Amino acid sequence: MSATVTAVSSNGEYSFTKPNRDSITLLAGLGVEGDIHAGVTVKHRSRIAQDPTQPNLRQVHLIHEELFAEVADAGFEVAPGALGENITTRGIDLLGLPAGTLLHIGEAAVVEVTGLRNPCIQIDAFQDGLLKQVVGRDEAGRIVRKAGIMSVVREGGVVRPGDTVEVRLPEEPHRPLERV
Hints:
This protein is mainly beta.
């Protein structure tokens, strides 16, 4: 499997969206250099309130560009960085990857997939009704989360639009992604 990075985004302040950048630097064990969510322990406000000593399994947020076309069909306009992701990809089923998958991005960076992003009500504050587009239920009534995946940085490096993404699946049995 291979994919391409279509955009990179970061923000040093808490805000829902993240501005696009020419490049971002991933720091091993921390996340995106200068991003508010970088760190060894949790940085998302709701998780800090629960337990600020939890490990940060959400250092780097990746989202598939194909989601933007899907929500556009329902009348929503979403661009890279708008949903707070750090890396926007094309050409890979991010949501179908198992936990522990390694993504080799660009020349040196490696992230390990930890789980699914758990979308929150802030998505509706961004665009009313969008939350129902990125969280739904399948035929069996199970919750389906489509707002991207979360990861931790195993090897640092610079990531730019146009970089390739190489997928390395973990040994079987594969564990499906759960919300983190």
